[in-house]
Amino acid sequence: MLPFSEAAGRNQSAIAGPLSRILPGAARVLEIGSGTGQHAVYFSERFPGVYWQCTDLAENLPGLQARIDQEGRTRLPDALELDVMSDGWPRVSFDAVFTANTLHIMPWDHTPVLLARSATLLNPGGCLAIYGPFHDAGVHTAPSNEAFDRSLRARNPAMGVRDAVQIQALANERGLQVEADLALPANNRILVFRKPAAAPT
Ligand SMILES: C[S@@+](CC[C@H](N)C(=O)[O-])C[C@H]1O[C@@H](n2cnc3c(N)ncnc32)[C@H](O)[C@@H]1O
What we know:
This protein has 201 residues and is α/β, with parallel strands linked by helices. The chain has helices at 6-22, 38-46, 61-72, 110-121, 143-155, 164-173; strands spanning 28-32, 51-53, 55-56, 80-81, 94-100, 122-132, 134-135, 162-163, 177-184, 188-194. Bound molecules: S-adenosylmethionine (SAM). S-adenosylmethionine is lined by residues 5, 8, 32-36, 39, 56-57, 60, 82-85, 100-102, 105-106, 110.
């Protein structure tokens, strides 16, 4: 049986709206932490011109690849192993990097690395989109996110809901401009960053 995430099933249509506005029709997208692959299957159906490269930690690759084989074989390339902290980042460039519900699972020191590596491999004018729950300058925006944060930290002290203000500042330092911070259902948000287009020569 394929791994399944109820959350991914619930949030995919809400995420598709903003993605449809920020992704060029023939974008090359790198997804970090694809998990069950449900988002990749859904978005590759919804955006047929887009090349969607799934990645995840080695331990999640068999399930992810099984979903690609069963549900996305004609549209999706094979998943790649990628640990954000490794040197295994693709050597080719992308028009967009997308990641959903990953920053609160990874230890916090992974976020600056994800931002820096994304800034490097994005084409000029490309964007980074990060979906998930966030708080602002340490202040929770909803009781449900506060409870979720507590449950994550109880499970593993390295996990926790991350701070949008801090992420935006770090992204800026790495050359990514804040483009949008959009509210989505269930107190989730999508943070969008843009790598400036190359200056005309
Ligand atoms: C809660 S799941 C989200 C999966 C999927 N994006 C979704 O929205 O359903 C978190 C994902 O982050 C991945 N992840 C955790 N640490 C990672 C790391 N260091 N590098 C890359 N992915 C990582 C996990 O393997 C897992 O697939």
